[in-house]
Structure prediction request, 575 residues.
Amino acid sequence: MDRDKHNRSRFLPAFAYKWLPQKLSKVARPLYKALILVFLLAAGTWLVYFSGGTSFAFPYVLLLPVLLSASWFGLPGAILCSITAALLIGPWMPVDVSAGTDQITRTWLTRIAFFLMIGAFAAWLFRRLRQANQRYLQALNIDQKTGLLTQAALTQDLEKLLQSSSRDNASPSALLLLRMEDLWEVLQSMGVDTAEQVVKDIALRINNKLQVPHQIYRYSRSELAIILPDCTQDKVGSVFKVVQQVGDNQSTVNGISLRVQFVAGSYLIGENDDNTNTVINHARTGLSAAIEHHVPYLPYDPAFDQHIAERVQLIGKVRDGLVNQEFQLFYQPKICLQTGQHLGAEALLRWFNPENKMIMPGLFIPKVESTTLIDPVTRFVIARACEDIKSQQLASVSLNFAVRNLMDQSLISELGKMVSSYGVTPESLEIEITEGALIQNPEQAKAAVDSLREQGFKVSLDDFGTGYSSFQYLAQLPLSGLKIDRAFVIDLETSANARTIMASMISMARALKLEVTVEGIETEAQRKMVTDMGAELAQGFYYSRPLPLSEYQLWAKDYCHQQELSSRYRDEAKV
Prediction:
């Protein structure tokens, strides 16, 4: 596509193309320009004559067609138009029409020279301006590091595609938006130049592999876009499979072997589509849905928009929910596996709307954790947990900290004072952190854990085994415990491999003197297995689901009573 010619008029002075119809053919366009110049020359000559002659200021109105000719036809056009304009008000044009006074030869020759100078300078100036525009357009449309077309070029090409499809009833085209999931890790570990080379290499290999008409663009640092003309939804899916294969195949960049994982969304452009931003947003919506559903690719579905709108509206109500006391803490008990003693609970946030219907945590917690809303929500959880501990004499309570919480130096440094202000000791709280914080910023995460431990808080690693860096940092962080994710509990009764993995994790944690909590215990057999493997604490539906405070207290009282009876029966049996 000839983008430079297409966009030239967008950057040259507006008057240069103001009178040109946009649908003229290449042959008719210069003729139309010439007619405009002839008209302006004739009109200017008439104005000079009927305004009294060249002694007045109106002769210089003929500089307008001179400037236009310089812009439209360059130096040859400027010279021809300058001479013509100067001659039209030259030897045959009186100085004063009413007196019949002719011009002296030196005057109109000087005017010709002046017009020629203006025309030549204007032609040179417009030429330089056009060259500068060409360089700007090239920089705008071509990514300098990879040589790929840019987001600006994508927008321009989509505009043309939308215009042609609405005018010619062409077959549907598609936009495929691709994100390279692990490019950020390449950038962090190997630098910008290597990451850019990876993008360039991947785009080149995709371009060589695709057997259908296409155009590839660098949409953002970690995203590529592909326009697929005359395409169907099935063909888009086939194209993505090719892209996946390219990413899965090992490539060597700067002597390093790499693979790239893609996630993508697409949008099939219809005949009623007329806005490039809408097309791009729909493809991005499909991409976002694919990420949310943990699948590699999803085409756009209008239902996604409603889901996103509902999610945005829900998140917008979080602050009001805090003010209106719609949030509550539920508690799920933690049990000592060796003695059966109830030692504490994990505090879990629950949200009830004004109709007292519970909003599922998965609908709002992940979004809250990724925004600044996590700060007021976490402070609410801390305050409510401390109030419950103080007023109800609760045992140890575990609180979940998101990545943003752990990176919040203000919260971490003042947490001890905050807890003490409620009359609660730091030892009464355990802070559970995720592996995501360790991956994102290991040094700051270690500093935060050090600070929490110095203030007297227990700190455990939540969802252990589901991330990538646990074993690397366990020995370095001053943790007090870890919690093994429920995913490793599900198959304990049926899989020898699952039991081996569980035993290995518990053994490793004990070697590091970490208190092990196993979550997701639902059967007696699971409880017995993890007990025999050496885990200290358990949590799960086998003991209790998460309960509101009042029900949790009743459960604790009943559980304690049952433990006393069991202990008494055991003692009597021994006697």
The chain has three domains: 3-141, 151-300, 318-574. The domain at 318-574 is CATH 3.20.20.450 (TIM Barrel).
